[in-house]
Specification:
Layout (H helix, E strand, L loop, with lengths): L1 H8 L9 H37 L4 H4 L13 H7 L6 H32 L5 H10 L5 H14 L7 H8 L4 H12 L4 H8 L4 H12 L1 H16 L3 H6 L8 H10 L6 H31 L5
Helix pairs in contact: 4-15, 5-8, 5-9, 5-12, 12-15, 14-15
């Protein structure tokens, strides 16, 4: 009895491990390493853009001989020379690009939203086949259809105008945006449509007063993608616009390089920076619509 009580009263040595505390110690280290890797990757991807911005402020003889991002001399004259280097001020070409972009945005918003509502809410013969054909057109490259389109617009005397770049948008030719909006509308409860029909609303009223306000994220995504793709489009604008007065920003940058025997690369980079500002601003102020639009549609 005495031996048993002695054993029980002796202090027990229990070795315990605390995985929670160890995890709490390692968590800040892992977060620091992860953020460090992301920052280095971001700097690596942004290096060409940063180098272009820095080069736009350098003299021509220092641009290609200095790959670093350190600015030794400040050359603001590149922006002054580049703005007036062509037959028209560079702002003229920015306005041309803005006209084409606004026309494309309006066309995609109106036509693609109407087509998406029809595919998502209306019932008609051949709906599934037409939707499948519409999706197949996403895989068709523009080089396949550019020749017949050019012949068509040439016959109606619309070449060297902005209409060949805007009119196709009014006929819902961008199937990607139709698919994006269809997936968004399918996520809206049909009870809203039924309640509107009980109140005597037709399809146009349901579309304009119920669907459009709820489709703001998808519409915002359409605006951002249309702006970026149209603003940076070079091939289509090169085909249809041959008069220098009708040049858009990409064509003006190309003409800027070809217009001089000895290219003023500082001015070229300066105007490239100017042309990137609208894209940067539209993405900066519209990124929340872009993220929300993709997250709430079939594009996620």
């Amino acid at each position: 009895m005495t031996e048993t009580s002695t054993i029980l009263s002796a202090p027990e040595r229990v070795v315990t491990r605390n995985p929670v505390g160890r995890r709490q110690v390692l968590q800040p280290v892992r977060a620091f390493v992860k953020h460090l890797v992301l920052i280095l990757a971001a700097l690596l991807m942004l290096y060409p853009v940063l180098w272009m911005v820095i080069s736009s402020l350098r003299p021509n003889d220092e641009i290609f001989g200095n790959p670093s991002l350190l600015l030794q001399s400040f050359e603001i004259s590149n922006y002054i020379d580049g703005w007036s280097a062509l037959t028209q001020p560079f702002g003229h070409y920015l306005i041309n690009s803005m006209i084409v972009v606004l026309g494309a945005i309006v066309g995609n918003l109106v036509a693609c939203s109407l087509a998406a509502y029809a595919f998502a809410r209306l019932e008609f013969r051949g709906k599934r086949w037409l939707f499948a054909i519409m999706l197949i057109t996403i895989m068709v490259p523009i080089h396949v259809i550019i020749v017949p389109q050019y012949i068509l617009f040439s016959q109606v005397d619309l070449v060297n105008t902005f209409w060949p770049l805007i009119l196709p948008k009014l006929f819902a030719t961008d199937a990607f945006f139709i698919f994006l909006m269809v997936q968004f509308i399918r996520g809206i409860p049909r009870e809203l449509d039924e309640a509107a029909r009980i109140d005597g609303a037709g399809h146009f009223r349901i579309f304009s007063q119920i669907m459009l306000p709820l489709m703001t994220p998808a519409l915002g995504t359409t605006v951002i993608f249309t702006f970026i793709w149209t603003w940076n489009d070079f091939f289509s604008q090169l085909i249809y616009l041959t008069k220098p007065d009708n040049y858009t920003t990409p064509l003006a940058l190309r003409a800027f390089v070809d217009a001089q025997g000895v290219t003023n690369w500082g001015a070229v980079f300066a105007m490239s920076v100017v042309s990137l500002i609208p894209v940067f601003l539209i993405f900066l102020f519209g990124q929340r619509f872009l993220v929300k639009g993709i997250a709430t549609t079939g594009g996620k």
